[in-house]
Design goal:
Layout: E1 13-20, E2 23-30, E3 33-38, E4 41-45, H1 50-62, E5 72-75, H2 81-87, E6 95-98, H3 102-110, H4 114-122, E7 126-129, H5 133-139, E8 144-149, H6 169-178, E9 179-189, H7 194-202, E10 206-213, E11 221-227
Parallel strand pairs: 5-6, 5-8, 6-7, 8-9
Antiparallel strand pairs: 1-2, 2-3, 3-4, 9-11, 10-11
Amino acid sequence: MPLTFGPDALAPVILDRREGPYGEVVLRRRGDDFEIIANGCFLMDTSDGRSERLLVDAALDALPAGRTAPAVLIGGLGVGFSLARAAAEPRWGRIAVAEREQAIVDWHRDGPLAGISGAALADPRTVVLTTDLVAHLRTTTDRYDALCLDIDNGPDWTVTDDNGNLYSPAGLAGCHARLTPGGVLAVWSAQPSEEFEQALRNAGFRGVRTEEVGVARGVPDVVHLAIRAAR
């Protein structure tokens, strides 16, 4: 007898739901894919991942030629595509990933998402910072050659209100300060933003540009790129 699939065949199944200091975070499975939902807002899933990988690749490609073992900060961990991409690239030196949701870290360490990120988390170059990215950028004295940021659906669509500080003049100035000369800021977004491009220029970044990745829903994902001047 042939299999039939009703309207609920691809209905999401909740695998874990937790309340944390920033609200509710949920891991769901839909068919073969996993989805992360924060405070009722869809963040990302495992159906594609091209733009999350581009976030890391484009930052590395934009670094000055000859820079050895550059350090990268990825924020946040998400479904793990960006971290896995960085760990698969031997040119990266130190790989830090900032993730404020302990639940997401747990899902990667010994949960359903370990298949994506297990090898990356075991890489000796990788360190997981269980902290708020915005707070880390404001308080750390560490400097990075690249900041690859993917904590929202874009500068105009933040998961929590306080995340908006990252895209403010003060937040972008903080990103600028944490980069080495010639360092690259890469910001993932679900849609292009000319306003954000101008904000990057106003913050002193150079070489501001946007790379697009076509997706099934029609509006392309984008990665905003900006470079701190070499001097």
